[in-house]
Design goal:
The structure holds 2 protein chains of 2 kinds. Chain A is α+β, with helices and mostly antiparallel strands. Chain A is built from 19 helices and 18 strands. Chain B contains 3 helices and no strands. The chains are: A alpha+beta, B mainly alpha. At the A-B interface, helix 9, helix 14, helix 17 and helix 19 of A face helix 2 and helix 3 of B.
């Protein structure tokens, strides 16, 4: 479907004693996208079920345990049946709480002790080379003690500054302990500072420094062992209970979410009302399922099948009912392969309910553009292989999206590389000029065309480096067609929102302008050498100018005088598509440079030259390959985002997010 | 031997692409700074940031087209 799936707004009303059951049914259906209720007169938001607070508390404890045991979520894991989770939940939490608290406390204490010991050792280390006991550094009434590092020997300066002092120096003279009378302390300090003195505090303690250091080291060994023990115990607990903890977490999270669901809906004293969106095709299924499970004790109503039209209420306060497109949830397509490209649309924003899902366009033209920019059999096949692997192995959406680009882009790269450019790894198959080719490299005459059935398919029409002007011309035409597509999609979008008249007023003028530019393009290209040669009386010039003027007139009527400013923008949009050629050319140039160095300059030298040649060839090809992914990917998608989307896409819709349960670590059975 | 006229054309082509590249770089510098900030705050801004980021790139494409047209007239 090119438009997002039709949605119906439904209302489910029932008595409160059936609420829990209803919620379970809706979660199992995984089709209902609820609308959060904001309080109105007579209706209040519901209160969470009592089970919510119990489950939340357990969840809190469990999360604390996960943090202590350093358990991280993974994408895969054993699935534990819910029954087992439920019956073991409380006992597991209590048991682990008791076990883990003690161990974690020991671990924290030993870690603190270890840090303290390390600090002491750091402070004591410089004192070791001074033959004084630790207690001798402090506790004097009339003596000041300076201990610290110095840059140069302070003794001469001290001798000049103070009358009496005693100095101890470490072996390499970078640490000193100075004892002076307190009244001369200031002078002594000045003398020390002149020699780059920086104070180092002496730790508290008694006895010989070296002995203290030794005892610290022995204790450190013990503490480290205790720490390792604690960590062992923790990792054992983690290994034993990991699956159960993750399963319990998931189970409780689901419980809490369901128990708190009443907060999202309207309730009265005895009844509830759920306002929600359901895909129109599925409404019947939802109703039948509810009837089967709840009998007749509820009221089900389809309020409306959401129309895509935006109506203008004249005179009323709400002038524009633009929220049609915004609040109605949009279900992105699920049909492969187009749905693989959903990530590219989501990168900008979710489409609105009443516009074309641009994924359909991206899925077709983006790989085409990517292929045109790469246009090389060698890189193309590598991309196909990488993309295929990525699609099979990658689990995150981001990597899946990139793999999609590589796979489908690679297919077109190979096709264009084979038939349009006749090129592999930056080298053409057959010679155009004097460049190195696969023919000259392999010593075999490669054909310049290949017969498929009755059709003679050429292997290489254009050479990227020789036929630049033709390629620029070709890509300008691609741009024109792409922009036409954009304008027609834009017209369609406006037509379903406001009707055909609006669509023509807003977009048809631009279609005419673009048509004019398209007819004018060949005339300009032919006369590029001498632009004065253009005959204005000529029909080929007159018709497009009339088209542009008429088109502009329609646009000015539809959108106002300011639309003139968009005219140069349209021209620059067309020129922007020439990047399709430009990037292909620059990539070919880069590959050619590497190939020339490797194959024409290094390899013929023989011996070591061959080895260097191979290295340069491989590194060079990898560089070109990476640049091809980055530049072709970014520029290809950019042409959609900037040039194409401007013509029709609004975006900003709400993503369809039905109530559902996703189980990774638990299973229903 | 290349004549002086062709040399001047080649220099012109070089200036066209060199200056337009410089201009695109200057323009993108500021947008890029802001874009990185926006993405750091909320990774969802990536798509929109990228669209804004690449707008000045067209400048250098125009330069490139002009350069090729000049070279074609040599």
């Amino acid at each position: 479907m090119i438009l997002p799936e039709k949605m119906s707004r439904i209302l489910i009303v029932g008595s409160k004693d059936k609420l829990r059951e209803t919620i379970d049914i809706l979660y199992d259906l995984a089709l209902v996208h609820p609308l959060d209720f904001s309080e109105e007169e007579g209706l209040a938001i519901g209160a969470p079920f009592p089970s919510a607070s119990d489950a939340s508390q357990k969840l809190l404890k469990l999360r604390a345990l996960e943090k202590d045991l350093e358990i991280e979520e993974t994408n895969f894991g054993p699935q534990i049946p819910i029954g087992e989770v439920e019956s073991n939940l409380s006992s597991t939490i209590d048991y682990l709480n008791a076990e883990v608290t003690g161990i974690v406390e020991t671990k924290n204490l030993t870690q603190q002790r270890l840090a303290a010991l390390e600090n002491d050792r750091r402070l004591l280390a410089p004192l070791a080379s001074i033959p004084l006991d630790i207690e001798l550094y402090s506790g004097y009434d009339s003596l000041a003690v300076f201990t610290g590092t110095v840059r140069s020997d302070p003794e001469p300066a001290l001798r000049a500054a103070v009358k009496g002092f005693e100095i101890f120096k470490s072996k390499n003279n970078d640490f000193v302990a100075v004892f002076v009378a307190k009244k001369e302390a200031a002078e002594a300090q000045r003398a020390l500072v002149q020699n780059g003195y920086a104070e180092v505090a002496v730790p508290k303690g008694k006895g010989n420094t070296e002995q203290s250091l030794k005892s610290i080291e022995t204790e450190e060994v013990e503490v480290k062992k205790a720490l390792a023990d604690a960590e062992d115990k923790i990792s054992k607990l983690r290994a034993d209970h990991r699956a159960m903890i993750l399963a319990s977490d998931e189970h409780l999270s689901i419980e809490v979410e369901k128990a708190e669901f009443p907060l999202r809906i309207a309730t009265t004293k005895n009844a509830f009302a759920i306002d929600a969106f359901v895909p129109t095709k599925q409404v019947e299924k939802v109703q039948k399922e509810l009837e089967a499970k709840l009998g007749k004790s509820f009221h089900f109503e389809v309020i409306e099948v959401k129309s895509r039209k935006e109506t203008v209420h004249e005179g009323s306060e709400i002038e524009h009912e633009a929220d049609v497109g915004l609040e109605t949830p949009v279900k992105m397509g699920e049909k492969k392969p187009i749905s693989l490209f959903n990530g590219f649309t989501e990168l900008i924003s979710t489409p609105k309910y009443n516009e074309i899902d641009p994924t359909n366009v991206i899925a077709i033209t983006f790989p085409l553009f990517f292929g045109l920019m790469v246009g090389d059999v060698g890189y193309g096949t590598i991309f196909i292989a990488l993309g295929y692997l990525g699609l099979k192995k990658c689990t995150t959406d981001d990597w899946k999206t990139i793999s999609t680009m590589l796979f489908f882009g690679g297919i077109w790269s190979t096709i264009f590389g084979l038939f349009l450019f006749g090129e592999a790894f930056g080298m053409p198959f057959a010679p155009h000029g004097e460049e190195i080719t696969w023919s000259s490299l392999l010593g075999v005459e490669l054909p310049s065309s290949i017969g498929i059935g009755n059709i003679e398919a050429p292997l290489g029409i254009y050479n990227k480096l020789n036929d630049v002007n033709q390629l620029l011309y070709l890509t300008a035409w691609i741009g024109i067609f792409h922009l036409f597509l954009g304008f027609f999609l834009g017209m369609y979008n406006i037509a379903i929102r406001h009707g055909l008249k609006h669509a023509i007023m807003e977009k048809f003028g631009w279609v005419l302008v673009l048509l004019g530019m398209a007819i004018l393009l060949p005339v300009i290209v032919v006369n590029l050498g001498d632009i004065t040669g253009i005959e204005f009386g000529d029909m080929a010039v007159l018709i497009p100018i009339v088209l542009i003027v008429v088109g502009m007139a329609i646009s000015i009527m539809g959108e106002g005088i300011l639309s003139i400013l968009e005219l140069p923008g349209l021209l620059s949009n067309i020129l922007s598509y020439t990047r399709l050629a430009a990037i292909g050319v620059s990539k070919a140039g880069l590959a050619l440079a590497f190939n020339m160095i490797a194959l024409e300059m290094l390899a013929p030298m023989g011996g070591l030259g061959v080895v260097f040649g191979i290295v340069v060839f491989v590194v060079g090809q990898l560089t070109v390959l990476m640049l091809a992914i980055i530049s072709a990917g970014i520029h290809g998608i950019r042409l959609h985002y900037v040039e194409l989307f401007q013509k029709f896409y609004t975006g900003g819709g709400t993503k369809y997010n039905p109530l559902r349960v996703v189980r990774k670590y638990t299973s229903e059975r | 031997m290349v004549d002086v006229g062709s040399g001047i054309v080649a220099i012109g082509a070089g200036i066209a692409i060199g200056l337009s590249g410089l201009a695109a770089g200057l323009a993108e510098k500021d947008i890029g700074t802001a874009a990185v900030g926006a993405i750091a705050e909320n990774p969802k801004n990536f798509g929109k940031s990228m669209v804004l980021m690449v707008i000045p790139e067209s400048i250098v494409i125009f330069g490139l087209v002009i350069a090729f047209l000049l070279m074609g007239n040599m």
